Task: structure prediction
Amino acid sequence: MRNIDFWCRRRALCRWRSGVLCFCLILLLCLAAGCGQTKLTKQTVDGASTSIAIDLPFTLESAPQREAVPENPYITALTNRAVTQAKGMPFHLTQFTTFAIKRDALQAKGDAFAQQYREERVAAFLQAFEQNAQITENSRDMQDKDFHGKAGKVVVIQAKMKGEQETIKAAFLPLDDEYWFVVIAYPKEHEEDDGKLADKIFASIEAQP
Result:
């Protein structure tokens, strides 16, 4: 009888160990597959004359707001759409800004002028953004970025905003008929989660036909 009890206890212990091992394996597989990560869904965002597809961690419900355009020989329209942090959102700010371009007028000036104009637009946009957000820039890094076959740039700004250290990432996608800016701002201390999420979002940006 003692032998029977011993083997019963041993089989129960083996089953318990097997269950623990299976749980650990499932947990490891979930971690490897990214369980618990912020879910992204592909959405279409409209500008004044073009659209982009982008993966977002929230549903973009508001329509782009057209804003007054100062007299400019190369810009026909300006749209802006900003989503500030709400419950369940990972970022302080997500902003979409576009400038509809007079392609013919710009091309008539030549490639060198068009390139210089794009660079000026980036500088002017970032300056206006910083002034509106009332931030103090500490550093800036700009890198070339390929958006699914379209050349653009990503700018990373380290800044101080409302007494806190903030990271601001801006994607610039200059299409023929419209310039796109996508800006994401989050606390610098969240670089490992929000920062990597912003990079994934930027990697998903694609001009729509």
